[in-house]
Amino acid sequence: MSPGLDYPLCPDYPPRPTRQSIGRIETHFGIALPPALIEVALHSRSFGRWFAGLGPDYTSLRHIIRINSYCRRRRRSRAIPKYLIAFNVGFFYCFDARHYNHQTGEYFIRYWSPGMEEGDPYCSVAEYLEVCVKGWETARRGRRG
Fold first, then answer.
1. What is the number of helices (H) and of strands (E) in the chain?
2. Looking at residue 4, what is its pLDDT?
3. Mean pLDDT by 10-residue block, N- to C-terminus, for the chain (145 residues)?
4. How many Cα atoms are found within 13 Å in the side-chain-facing hemisphere of 40?
5. pLDDT digits 0-9 by tens, 88-123
6. Would you tell me how many other CB atoms lie within 10 Å of the CB of residue 116?
7. Can you say whether the dihedral through the CA atoms of 43, 46, 49, 50 is positive or negative?
8. How many other CB atoms sit within 10 Å of the CB of residue 49?
9. Residue 104 needs a FRET pair 20 to 30 A away by CA distance; which of 38, 53, 123, 145 works?
10. Are 104 and 93 a contacting pair, CB within 8 Å?
């Protein structure tokens, strides 16, 4: 089973992050999660449709720790590198723990796929979200068209 199949598409999932769950995640990965991502998790009703869970549901297949554990156990040619921390569901947009952006106070964000060259990174969660929202708006307009 691939990550992401245990939450229904419903606004109550995943559980909201807590100080304890954020602390556990940050300790587990050895990085500070960007405040912008935490804010989106706290205030977006549909956070779990795109992003890995940050709440106290550590055994869920959609939790950030479980998604990354799953992706690291895959065969070597398909395993996500240890320096990348996937934070969404289904597509591997990741924090790159090798590259910290001192201007934004966040780790760069990269897309990862087995055998694919690393592309240009996003400098912050805000930049990443802006691109996502524009893409979703364009797709939505196209469906209505």
1. 4, 3
2. 42
3. 43 81 98 95 88 94 93 85 91 92 93 86 93 84 71
4. 20
5. 887 789 999 999 999 989 999 999 988 888 888 999
6. 9
7. negative
8. 17
9. 53
10. no
